[in-house]
Amino acid sequence: MAAPRIESCQFGPWKFISSKSCIMGSKCDSPNACKTALASNTEENLCELCRFDHAVAKEHLPDMIFNKNCLRIEHASGAVVEFNALDALRELRDTDEDNIQVAHAHEWKEARKDCEYTQNVQTGYDWTYTTNYSGTLSGGIQVQPTDSRIDLDKLRAKEDIRFFQELYLYEDELDDNGASNCVVKIRCMDSGFLVLLRHYLRVDHVLLRVKETRLYHASGTDCIIRERATKRKPFQHLNVSHDLPAPQWVPYPLINQRTMDVRGLHEPPVDVRGLHEPPVDVRGLHEPPVDVRGLHEPPVDVRGLHEPPELRQPTRDLKINFVIVKTSKIFRNSGALIPRRGQRRLLKINIEHQME
Fold first, then answer.
1. What 3-state DSSP class applies to 114?
2. What are the CA-CA distances from residue 205 to residues 111, 179, 181, 247, 309 (Å)?
3. What is the pTM of this model?
4. Which residues on neighbouring strands pair with residue 138, listed in sequence order?
């Protein structure tokens, strides 16, 4: 795996360091070794995935985790503000406090109303992967309540951006029912710097919710203002086009019994050999078809190809003598089989007939 890309910027007493890398793998590299390491409580022998799972200690995690993405803000006094995927996932809620369900949840339950186990489904985790994370503080930072607010008009003013970075911490598509992701952004200007940590949740045809944490520092001050906000709207109250197709849940069979084509219930079979190309004869582009009945076998009709018709009568005894004759080329002449190129032997057949 490639090393993370590190970028940094010095801004007065502040220093910004960003680490950006790819998604963490989803499979254990050595299951047996990791199982032994977990049993013996030796974390250093775990693979990257198992070490991360053991550190988070959650029942379920998102599909895409950027475990090496990190934003670190350091002050000359030793104070540090950091944003990373590990701490963000540790703050995942253990239960779905809002009881959010997908759009076709009612139809799903109606189709299984005779099953007692599906009427009261409970999970031990929040399937929307909502986090209460607002950053990791260290180095003696003190948090105090205040009435001060971030000056949004000052942030709208056009300024040269000295440093900018956007880092994904984790993301999940909620089994094709929406999206859930956690992203941190930073921009530094001459007037100060602004950090935005946002958890974005979209459940298709149900709701849209955004949880945001903003940190703003104005140049010449000795503090950082942190604001938190949560915005939520049901889908029917959003200013979006109502021409979108409504979600429908239909209990389709696993295999379409009519066409037996599992590539699409309403799509015709696709010819993967080429949409507008004729089938390709892989037996040879410029060679005649090969007789696969046997390269070293005689023709099927062994009664004689050029003998008088009277010899082609049923016989009682048939004696065949084989004589090996060497040849070097292959042709097809008068319907008789002649050896192909590369074949060095031909079986010449002499037939002795004993007529009744």
1. coil
2. 20, 12, 18, 7, 84
3. 0.65
4. 80
Rg of the chain on CA atoms, in Å: 37
First to last CA, the chain: 84
| SS3 call for 89 | helix
**In this structure, what DSSP letter does residue 107 have?**
H
Rounded CA gap, 208 and 75, in Å? 36
Euclidean distance between CA atoms 143 and 226, whole angstroms? 9
- Whether the pLDDT of residue 128 is over 50: the answer is yes
Lowest mean pLDDT among 206-215, 277-286, 291-300, 309-318: 309-318
Which strand ranges, in their side-by-side order, compose the sheet holding 80-84?
5-11, 14-20, 70-75, 80-84, 136-138
Residue 212 pLDDT > 90: yes
DSSP letters, 146-171, are ------HHHHHS----SEEEEEEEEE
The pLDDT score that the predictor gives to residue 308 is: 54
Write out pLDDT tens, residues 90-103.
Answer: 999 887 777 788 88
49, 26 contact by CB (below 8 A)? yes
Tokens (6 digits) for 43: 């974390």
Alpha helices in the chain (DSSP H): 31-40, 48-56, 85-90, 105-111, 152-156
Q: Which residues pair with 188 in a beta bridge?
A: 163, 193
Q: Could you read off the pLDDT of 68-82 as tens digits, one per residue? A: 999 999 999 999 999
- Give CA–CA dist 291/340, Å, rounded: 10
Q: Which two tokens stand for residue 306?
A: 């050029």
Q: Starting from the edge strand earliest in sequence, which strands make up the sheet with 192-203, in order?
A: 64-65, 163-172, 178-189, 192-203, 207-218, 225-234
The three-state DSSP-derived secondary structure of 217-245 is: EECCCCCCEEEEEEEEEEHHHCCCCCCCC
**SS3 state at 58:** coil
- Helix H or strand E encompassing 177: none
* Cβ count within 10 A of residue 337: 19
Task: Show the tokens assigned to 61.
Answer: 């995690």
Tokens of 225: 């203002």
The number of helix segments (H) and strand segments (E) in the chain equals: 5, 15
The predicted pLDDT at position 271 comes to 59
